[in-house]
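RECORD TYPE: inverse folding
INPUT: C-alpha cells
STRUCTURE:
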C-alpha cells in the first residue's frame, strides 16, 4: 500500500469509509490486523463473514492512521466489553487521540465512522429482497406512531428506520439491551432525527444522518452531540 499523508479530521466532521469484503489483499489484511482479531474473525463459519470482520478491522486501523500519521498496524484499538471485560466490545481509541469510532458490516459492504464530536454509531444492513416487509418484526421494533406513519411502501420505509435506530443504539453502547420500540425517529421520508427515547440524553443533543451505501443496502450514522454534523463519505480505494 502506498503511504498516505496524514489528513486532518475536522471538528464538525463525521467521516465514513466504505469498503467491500473482497477488496483488500489477504497479505495486507494479515499485515495490519493483529493475530487476536484474526483469530476472532476465524471463528465465523462462512468465509464472507470472516472477510467482513477482517476488512472492518483493517479499515478501522487504516482510516485512523490516515489521520494520525502512524502505521495502520500500530493503531491501538481497545474492545474491552463494559459488561464482561472480554475483547468483543465496541472499539475505542486511546483518549489522547480524541476520535470516536464505530464499525458495521453487512452484505457486500463494510463501514467505519470516525468523528471528534462525540460517541458515534454506524449501521449498515443488507436488503436482499427489495420491498419485503416483516410485519411481526416491525411491530416489535417500531412505536405505534412510527407504525402508523409507514407509507404504502413499508418494505422500503422499515429498513431506513431500522438502521437509524441501530446507529443510535451503537452510539450509546446499549446495543439491543434497550428495546428499539422505545426509540422514536422521524418517518423514513423525512430527514432523520431522534424524537424520543428513554435515556437522559436530550434529543437535541443527538444527531442522525442517512448514508448512501448503494443498491440493496441501507445505512445511517448517529453522533451524541448538539453541534451541527457534516458527513463525508469516502471509499477504501483511496487507502489502497
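DESIGNED SEQUENCE:
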Amino acid at each position: 500500500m502506498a503511504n498516505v499523508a496524514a489528513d486532518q479530521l475536522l471538528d464538525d466532521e463525521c467521516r465514513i469509509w466504505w469498503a467491500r469484503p473482497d477488496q483488500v489483499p489477504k497479505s495486507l489484511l494479515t499485515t495490519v490486523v493483529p493475530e487476536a482479531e484474526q483469530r476472532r474473525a476465524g471463528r465465523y463459519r462462512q468465509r464472507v463473514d470472516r472477510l467482513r470482520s477482517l476488512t472492518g478491522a483493517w479499515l478501522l486501523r487504516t482510516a485512523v492512521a490516515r489521520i494520525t500519521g502512524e502505521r495502520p498496524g500500530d493503531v491501538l484499538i481497545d474492545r474491552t466489553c463494559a459488561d464482561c471485560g472480554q475483547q468483543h466490545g465496541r472499539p475505542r481509541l486511546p483518549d489522547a487521540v480524541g476520535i470516536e469510532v464505530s464499525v458495521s458490516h453487512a452484505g457486500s459492504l463494510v463501514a467505519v465512522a470516525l468523528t471528534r464530536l462525540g460517541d458515534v454509531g454506524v449501521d449498515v444492513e443488507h436488503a436482499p429482497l427489495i420491498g419485503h416487509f416483516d410485519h411481526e418484526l416491525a411491530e416489535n421494533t417500531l412505536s405505534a406512531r412510527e407504525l402508523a406513519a409507514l407509507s404504502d411502501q413499508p418494505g422500503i420505509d422499515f429498513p431506513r428506520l431500522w438502521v437509524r435506530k441501530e446507529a443510535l443504539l451503537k452510539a450509546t453502547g446499549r446495543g439491543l439491551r434497550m428495546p428499539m420500540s422505545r426509540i422514536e425517529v422521524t418517518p423514513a421520508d423525512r430527514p432523520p432525527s431522534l424524537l424520543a427515547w428513554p435515556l437522559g440524553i436530550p434529543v437535541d443533543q443527538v444527531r442522525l444522518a442517512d448514508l448512501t451505501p448503494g443498491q440493496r443496502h441501507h445505512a445511517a450514522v448517529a453522533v451524541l452531540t448538539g453541534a451541527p454534523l457534516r458527513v463525508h463519505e469516502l471509499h477504501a480505494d483511496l487507502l489502497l
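NOTES: The helical segments are 26-32, 35-42, 47-68, 135-141, 144-149, 154-172.
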